[in-house]
Design the sequence.
């Protein structure tokens, strides 16, 4: 049965963490997987989450099943966080999922059932797991131009030109904020233009919001997708608590569907629940119980918002420090683009070979597509990393 299977290919992000762990060099720097680290290079449990955990442990009386959709209070909290007080809430449905990757797959499977001929358009480049998940769901994938290697910013004109080809059998996947891997986000005017295209040509927007709060703030990071949700007939959204609640290993996320009517949204949810039953039955509860506890308690929520705000500000200051190092120590302004990027990631514009050199010669781990995780830097690494980047460039 198994003897014809080929050797597995390594995951381009997760395999880096293993290689990093096994690297014995003292100077090693992990800029691979998207995990936030503090100035000591640690990823501590957020204080609001620790307090919520004490509360959950003290009050939870059973480990019995929750339900196919997960925790309904968590689900409602996620809709509030993502869509705010949107006028379209009456035609929205939601399920809790095992992380945002779980949400991507559930919605991919839903599309395959609801509209088998769907083509999903991904930005070029996009999160390395987008294409595998969509293809695993049996969907066709196309790419739209997005990132200009020269300016290191979004080329909105090219993006809009490509998306003007997308029609009613198509789904366009957008990054809600903090584009992975580039760090280059579309501006509000581009959200408006993509929305107009969706209304005119009939494609369905699908927004992956994995970093809400890491770009410009919780509300600001959702502004584009909220504008869109108020105007389009149908839309899908995935969201994650891995980064903004630091719950990486708890696999806590949600899949949100906006239907043409409340009935459509409810039917889409019904289908998602049937699919969940045939896949994992129900999502793991612990992370959702923690998030629900934080978001339903004014004091915990305010602690969490402050912590998230501090993380976002630290990312901006690490970007500033890196650009400053290139400018003042090395007299180089051609890395200023790093400052304009949002969230955890930046692409350097390096080839896979240059990324291998960074790893082999300097023990600096970034992803093969040229992505580095700014959140993996500590203030002490800045000068070493800037120097190595210049030696490899
Ligand atoms: C990343 O892009 O590094 C994270 O989202 C981790 C993952 O699941 O790939």
Sequence:
């Amino acid at each position: 049965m198994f003897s014809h299977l080929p050797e597995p290919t390594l995951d381009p992000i997760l395999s880096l963490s293993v290689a990093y762990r096994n690297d014995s060099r003292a100077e090693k720097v992990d800029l691979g997987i998207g995990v936030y680290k503090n100035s000591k290079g640690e990823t501590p449990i957020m204080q609001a989450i620790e307090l919520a955990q004490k509360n959950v442990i003290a009050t939870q009386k059973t480990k019995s099943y929750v339900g196919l959709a997960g925790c309904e209070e968590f689900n409602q909290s996620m809709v509030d966080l993502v869509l705010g007080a949107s006028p379209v809430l009456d035609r929205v449905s939601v399920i809790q999922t095992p992380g945002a990757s779980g949400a991507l797959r559930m919605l991919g499977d839903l599309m395959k059932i609801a509209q088998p001929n769907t083509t999903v358009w991904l930005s070029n480049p996009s999160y390395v797991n987008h294409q595998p998940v969509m293809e695993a769901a049996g969907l066709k994938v196309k790419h739209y131009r997005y990132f200009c290697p020269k300016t290191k910013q979004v080329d909105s004109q090219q993006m809009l030109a490509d998306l003007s080809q997308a029609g009613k059998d198509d789904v366009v996947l957008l990054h809600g904020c903090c584009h992975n891997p580039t760090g280059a986000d579309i501006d509000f005017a581009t959200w408006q233009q993509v929305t107009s295209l969706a209304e005119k040509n009939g494609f369905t927007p699908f927004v992956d919001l994995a970093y809400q709060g890491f770009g410009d703030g919780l509300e600001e990071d959702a502004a584009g997708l909220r504008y869109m949700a108020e105007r389009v007939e149908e839309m899908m959204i995935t969201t994650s608590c891995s980064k903004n609640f630091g719950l990486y290993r708890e696999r806590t996320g949600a899949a949100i569907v906006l239907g043409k009517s409340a009935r459509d949204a409810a039917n889409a949810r019904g289908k998602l629940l049937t699919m969940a039953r045939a896949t994992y039955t129900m999502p793991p509860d612990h992370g959702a119980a923690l998030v629900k506890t934080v978001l339903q308690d004014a004091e915990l929520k305010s602690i969490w918002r402050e912590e998230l705000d501090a993380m976002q500000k630290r990312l901006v200051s690490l970007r500033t420090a890196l650009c400053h190092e290139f400018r003042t120590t090395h007299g180089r302004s051609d890395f200023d683009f790093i400052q304009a990027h949002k969230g955890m990631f930046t692409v350097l514009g390096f080839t896979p070979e240059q990324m291998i050199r960074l790893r082999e010669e300097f023990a600096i781990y970034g992803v093969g597509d040229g992505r580095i995780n700014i959140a993996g830097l500590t203030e002490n690494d800045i000068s070493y990393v800037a120097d190595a980047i210049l030696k490899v460039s």
Observations:
- Residues 13, 33-34, 127, 129, 180 surround (2S)-2-hydroxybutanedioic acid (CB under 6 Å).
- The chain has a mean pLDDT of 97.
- The radius of gyration is 21 Å.
- The first strand starts at residue 29 and ends at 30.
